[in-house]
Amino acid sequence: MFGLFAVEGTTPVDDPHLAVWFAAGGGLAANFLTLLDLRNTPQAQLPDFKSIFYWLPFVLMPLLGAGLAYAYVMSGVELKPIVAVNIGITAPLILRAMANTAPTTPLKPPDPPGIPVDPTA
Questions:
Q1: Which domain holds residue 25?
Q2: Residue 115 forms part of a structural domain
């Protein structure tokens, strides 16, 4: 019907790179939720809105989400819009989990076939 807003929703978006924009929007939405939470914060506890460090996540979060979605798309993964938004929102957590599960020591390469292995080595 309208492609992106099809009722069935069973197929990914026609343009896979559109998922990158959905992920960036998810990263931006996460920041807006944090900004909305500030309405309940007492005046004395509000952050320094003039600081670059306050506004930096508004740039970095969408970039992290878009970059991660781009990596998925380039790997051949077909992302539906809602999954792309989810990736954008959770990109820092996904990247942190990937970094924490990376091996700290190099893996031993497998022995080449046909060469006897010395058990004393």
A1: 12-39+56-101
A2: no
